[in-house]
Design a protein that fits this description.
There is one protein chain. The chain is of the alpha+beta class. The protein is 42% helix and 20% strand. It contains 9 helices and 16 strands. Strands 1, 2, 3, 4, 5, 6, 7 and 16 form an 8-stranded mixed beta sheet that branches. It has a 6-stranded mixed beta sheet with strand order 10-9-8-11-12-15. Helix 2 runs antiparallel to helix 3 and helix 4 packs antiparallel against helix 5. It is elongated and about 80 Å long. The structure holds zinc ion.
Length: 393
């Protein structure tokens, strides 16, 4: 099973300059290849990442000599990435999903990154040796052991990270007696478990959300294209990263406890992919949390040999009485479930969590989690990213 550990880098100024040039070269090459792909396709050719790389290399010394300033993996990786992007595009076309043709990477907007092949870098404690650059400091050591597959250096806001993909051995644990647990994800409490625990939003998070909202407003008031706007957007991105890290830390603790304690974990299918696009900030952030929660559970369940059951979107976990099974309509504002049949009065989220925990025993619409993305493919972009310890502190 391939897992990727994302570690904060601490580059010197000169190293950061190199990172920026490497990202620029990777972006340029990707865009060049995407344009060439389109042209080849129009003229009836059958382009591939490999064929385009040959064409590129044939004209490279004459036309783009500056691309030799950075390591060759920056350009080579761009062709692999484009090949992957098209493979996913064709798969989506085939399955009838919204295809999303690969897009050009715009400077400043695209997430800057470049890849390094596994035989081109080495690790030594809290240091990574990057070709053409030498040793760069990392904030922590690589957590996984196994065969090292690849590394991707990327920038978020003004911080640099390296995501190292490792092919780890899965060691399923002996089953424990604790059976199934239901987890209800919500907005007022982050998660409510059927064993009675609730994970609340931390105070620090609420504070960060307030600051984020303020920064968002401030940035939107600045004139487009102005220096002050750029500065405000940078501030906003840094605050966003701080919130993301805080959230991931809280979720890691919860998801680890769940897979350690229970054989089966039942959650709702929140159809997260489509739901993140929401303009209401608090709601959007909650949905990002749910997506992250699901992502962590997916790979941790696999790692610990646990079953993750995802209830069908139409399973009435909220509407059903967890004691007598009666079903009724429940308004979003009703925080307490009151059963008119048996008289049960219970916290709404707790009630939902209990119903979820019963799902594996009953006949409900259970569907197993798709784990293909984690086990079947080797591309680093497809693996679960274990984002531990990327705090800003
Ligand atoms: Zn009842």
């Amino acid at each position: 099973m391939i897992l990727s550990h994302k570690i904060r880098l601490v580059p010197t100024q000169a190293q950061e300059d190199y990172f920026r040039r490497a990202c620029g070269t990777a972006r340029f090459t990707y865009n060049w290849a995407l344009a060439a792909w389109g042209e080849a396709y129009v003229t009836g050719g059958k382009p591939s990442g490999r064929s385009l790389k040959r064409t590129f290399n044939a004209v490279r010394r004459d036309q783009f000599p500056w691309t030799y300033d950075v390591h060759r993996d920056c350009t080579a990786g761009a062709f692999d990435n484009l090949q992957n992007a098209f493979q996913h595009f064709f798969r989506r076309v085939k399955t009838g999903e919204k295809p999303g043709y690969p897009k050009f990477k715009k400077k400043g907007l695209a997430k800057d990154s470049f890849g390094i092949a596994n035989d081109q870098f080495s690790l030594n404690g809290k240091k990574i040796r990057i070709p053409k650059l030498g040793w760069v400091k990392m904030r922590e050591v690589l957590r996984f052991t196994g065969k090292i597959m690849s590394a991707v250096v990327s920038r978020t806001a003004d911080k640099w990270f390296v995501a190292i993909a490792v092919d780890t051995e899965v060691t399923p644990q002996p089953p424990k007696t604790k059976g199934a647990i239901g987890v209800d994800l919500g907005i007022s409490a982050l998660a409510t478990m059927s064993d009675g625990r609730k994970v609340q939003h931390s105070r620090k998070r609420k504070k960060l959300e307030r600051q984020l909202r303020r920064l968002q407003k401030a940035a939107s008031r600045k004139q487009k294209g102005s220096a002050s706007r750029r500065k405000a957007v940078g501030k906003l991105a840094r605050k966003h990263l701080e919130l993301t890290n805080l959230r991931a830390d809280v979720l890691h603790k919860t998801t680890t406890e769940l897979v350690q304690d229970y054989e089966t974990i039942v959650i709702e299918d929140l159809n997260v992919r489509g739901m993140v696009k929401n303009h209401h900030l608090a709601r959007a952030i909650s949905r990002q949390s749910w997506a992250e929660f699901r992502r962590q559970l997916d790979y941790k369940a696999l790692m610990h040999g646990r079953d993750l059951v995802v209830a069908d979107r139409f399973y009435p976990s909220t509407k059903t009485c967890s004691r007598c099974g009666a079903v009724k309509q429940v308004a979003l504002s009703e925080r307490v479930y009151k059963c008119t049949d048996c008289g049960l009065v219970i916290d709404r989220d707790f009630n939902a969590a209990i119903n979820l925990s019963k799902l594996p025993l009953g006949k409900g619409n259970v569907k197993p989690v798709e784990t293909e993305a984690l086990t079947g493919r080797s591309s680093a972009s497809e693996t679960a990213v274990y984002e531990a310890g990327t705090g800003l502190g």
